[in-house]
Design a protein that fits this description.
With about 90 residues, this protein is α+β, with helices and mostly antiparallel strands. It is built from two helices and three strands. A hairpin with a 5-residue loop joins strand 1 and strand 2.
């Protein structure tokens, strides 16, 4: 009985660790806006021009996102793209 409980506990810990490792994702946005005196940060920009436009008139600077992973960014309405077949 102790062997069974020990084995189940070991498996549970192994699956928990594996699940935690696969659920983490890095940030898909390349640029961060660092706002002047307030110290606020916004890392939701895919290009430098977006970041600069967000800072325009507010002060601050843009810097590369240290957590950028290179994955493409998809909006919720992008969905799965399917090609339409033509019926003649």
């Amino acid at each position: 009985m102790r062997l069974l409980v020990g084995t189940l506990a070991t498996l549970l810990v192994a699956f928990a660790i594996d699940g935690a490792q696969t659920s983490a994702h890095a940030d898909p946005y390349r640029w961060c806006a660092m706002y002047g005196a307030r110290g606020a940060t916004n890392c939701y920009f895919t290009n430098l021009d977006q970041c600069r436009a967000a800072l325009s008139g507010m002060g601050g600077f843009c810097q590369p996102n240290n957590f950028y992973d290179g994955r493409p960014v998809f909006a919720a309405d992008d969905g799965i793209r399917r090609s339409r077949s033509r019926v003649r």
